[in-house]
Amino acid sequence: MKPIPLESTTVTPTALLLPTYVQMLQALSGWLDKAVKQMLAEQAEALLSVRLAPDMFPLATQIRFSCVQAIEGVFRLKGEAFPPLVEILLDEGRNAGDRAGSMADAQARIDETLALVESQAATLADANPGRSIAHSLPTGMIFDLTVEQYARDWAIAQFYFHVMTAYAIMRNQGVDLGKADYVAHMFAYLRPGTMPSQ
Fold it and tell me: Is 194 within a domain?
């Protein structure tokens, strides 16, 4: 299937990806906080080993892979090698079925990722949307993309896949989350006086 040709947008890949990573990683951290507050300690810790389906990775992995996607996206836009944290996160994520870690560990990884992504924002110039990226996977497959195609067709989709799987696991296990938790960043734009009363 050939991709649908889309006209280039006025929003640069950098301007699109960086806020998305920060907003949604902050949301993910908030969901974990809610789980810890709403559940008994052992239930919250056990949540990290829960999967949506037997052939899917558990919550602990979804958190690590969300972080990986954010870091990889930033460093691919910069055209630089990934920092060592990526391999650490991948290793933890792949082995989370046996060693899920703790909620504190998961929050620490999100915090590290946010700090890294935010530290790169000041030095990350807008990448040339037409620059080529050869995106290789461990399976040996290689995708030849422009920066714009990478941001639109891979980076956003992969990041949201892991973030939304984490959300779905928590909701499925009874954590009281709703749309407001998912789009918490939108409240910065709320017109005063328009919040519905309880």
Answer: no
